[in-house]
Amino acid sequence: MFVDPIQCLSLHHDLVLAINTSEKHVLSSCSTISGKEIVTNRSSIIICPDMNSIVADKKYWTIQCMPLSRFTEILATIDAAMGQSLLYDLDKKVTTRHVWQDVVNLPDEIIQKSSLHYILVDLILHSYPVFSDWCNILRKCEPYGIMRFLLSSTQIGDKEKLSINHLSQRYGLSAPYFRQLYRENFKGTAKKKLMDIRLASAILKLIESECSVLDVSIDSGYYSAAHFTTTLKNEIGLTPSEIRRLEKILYEG
């Protein structure tokens, strides 16, 4: 019987990296998609309801986890960045297998990266089998679409329209429902995420350009240089000039 993974996946599930140091010891869990028991003695990535569903001897297994919602953000961010690259084929058709596979077994060269974040990025960029199918399924989910929409919204010309009311209208939903949909799938609020994206874009402009702080501020949607400086100071503890000074020190080093 075919089970539609999209209907079974929840962004409240956990994406788990399990690295095994002894093939004699197995890890077990329950698949959130097929409902079958997962048993493996290989270093793998699995999706499970939460960490408590993992049964493994911690002496032989190193386990890291990330909410599926966080991984969806990472996937959308990488896709957005690659979508702006000439090396990325937006019309490329990727087929997804009809049979869901519960486990992604990892080769040694990927395991050596040790960090879950780095491993996930590597798997996305290299379209690793099975894992690429998982990504394609997440790309069909509405939360992924919302995240891509928010990431692309900073590219619109009229910075005055970077409000949730305006963006939700462009997305085709009422503002309250748009906010609710975001909260149900991601931590925080859509407004905070939009502010984070705007700030990250402004920091990048500070580093990559010689524009004045005022020009960077206005171009990034802030009302003034003082508004931008205050936001930057509150969020990361640095002023625009300190960021530029730090960037020069790192570059020269």
From TrEMBL:
One of its GO terms (molecular function) is DNA-binding transcription factor activity. Transmembrane segments: none annotated. Keywords: DNA-binding, Transcription, Transcription regulation. This is Helix-turn-helix domain-containing protein.
